[in-house]
Structure formats: structure tokens, C-alpha cells
């Protein structure tokens, strides 16, 4: 029983989706077993690796341009996730990976600001992230998208118990 719980926990950590939504993941086969990776998170990891690799090879962007990218790049992932969560459309894996890649770029640029000690820019970036969060919450509350999303998650949780 403990072994089965461990496998399910690992499955949820890597995929973030219940078994009926595995079409939103990337399936990797290994010795007759499959690992499911969240498509958007896979894109995020690739985006973070890309920015840190470019930085390691000496590619440095101007700080003001970094702040602009930190502001704009998450917009694609935000719109993709929200329109899918609001059931306005079903996203495709290539779009999830691409939007996750841009989001990962943004997160890596933010982390580089922290590492390089540009704390005023870090505060501005956190303010921008706060604006994203508040706007998403307000739109979700107004459209009742958040209610249906939370109901759906609690139904999935109840089914797994």
C-alpha cells in the first residue's frame, strides 16, 4: 500500500493531472513503463535552462529589457491557462510547452535579477507579478471561473479518496 501511495504521489508531482487528463502531459516510455510530465512545466524547465545557459555563456541582456520581458512573457501562459481553465477552449500540448517556455524564461530572468543583486528591479518585478495575480483573481471571480475550477479539483480529490 505504501509503495502504491509513493507511486501516485510521484505521478501527481510530475504530471499535476488526474489520469483522465493525461492528454495535457508528455508521455515518456522507459522499459514498458511510462512517465507523464506536465507539458507546461516541461516548457518552464526548458526555458529556465535556456536562460541560465545563455547567461553562463556570457549573454547578458540590459536590465530594463529584462524587466520588460519579465512583464510580457508570462502573458502567453496566463492567457493559455486561463482560457483553458474557463473552459473557453482546450489548449494543445505544443502551446502549453511554448507558453511554459516563455514563462520559464521570465522566471529565470527574475532569478538572475535576484542573483545579481538588482533588488529594486526585483521589487518592481514582484509588483508586476502581484498585478497579474490580482487581475487573474478579479477576472476569475467575475466570470465564476474560479468556482468551477475549484469544484472540479475537489471532485477529483474526492474521487481519489
Structural write-up:
The chain is mainly α and 161 residues long. It has one domain (39-160). Helix content is 74%, strand content 7%. It contains 7 helices and 2 strands, in the order αββαααααα. The protein has a two-stranded antiparallel sheet. α2 (39-56) crosses α5, α3 runs parallel beside α6 and α4 packs across α5 (93-116). The longest helix has 25 residues, at 119-143. The mean pLDDT is 84.
Keywords:
161 residues; mainly alpha; two-stranded antiparallel ribbon; 7 helices; 2 strands; 74% helix
Count of discrete structural domains: 1
Helicity range: over 70%
Distance between the terminal alpha carbons, to the nearest Å?
A: 14 Å
Radius of gyration: 18 Å
Strand content: 5-15%
Low-confidence region ranges: none
Task: Enumerate how many helices there are, as a single number.
Answer: 7
Number of strands: 2
**Strands of the largest sheet, in order across it?**
1-2
Tell me the series of helices and strands, N- to C-terminal: HEEHHHHHH
- Overall average pLDDT: 84
Explain the layout of strands and helices:
Elements: H1 2-15, E1 25-30, E2 33-38, H2 39-56, H3 63-72, H4 74-85, H5 93-116, H6 119-143, H7 145-160
Antiparallel strand pairs: 1-2
Helix pairs in contact: 2-5, 3-5, 3-6, 4-5
Sum this structure up briefly.
The protein is mainly α and 161 residues long.
Amino acid at each position: 500500500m505504501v509503495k502504491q501511495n509513493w507511486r501516485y504521489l510521484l505521478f501527481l508531482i510530475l504530471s499535476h493531472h488526474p489520469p483522465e487528463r493525461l492528454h495535457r502531459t508528455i508521455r515518456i516510455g522507459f522499459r514498458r513503463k511510462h512517465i507523464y510530465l506536465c507539458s507546461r512545466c516541461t516548457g518552464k524547465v526548458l526555458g529556465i535552462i535556456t536562460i541560465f545557459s545563455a547567461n553562463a555563456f556570457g549573454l547578458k541582456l540590459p536590465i530594463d529589457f529584462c524587466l520588460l520581458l519579465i512583464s510580457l512573457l508570462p502573458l502567453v501562459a496566463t492567457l493559455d491557462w486561463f482560457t483553458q481553465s474557463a473552459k473557453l477552449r482546450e489548449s494543445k500540448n505544443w502551446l502549453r510547452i511554448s507558453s511554459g517556455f516563455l514563462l520559464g524564461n521570465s522566471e529565470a530572468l527574475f532569478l538572475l535579477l535576484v542573483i545579481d543583486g538588482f533588488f529594486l528591479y526585483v521589487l518592481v518585478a514582484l509588483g508586476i507579478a502581484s498585478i497579474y495575480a490580482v487581475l487573474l483573481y478579479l477576472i476569475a471571480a467575475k466570470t465564476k471561473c474560479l468556482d468551477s475550477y475549484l469544484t472540479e479539483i475537489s471532485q477529483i480529490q474526492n474521487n481519489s479518496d
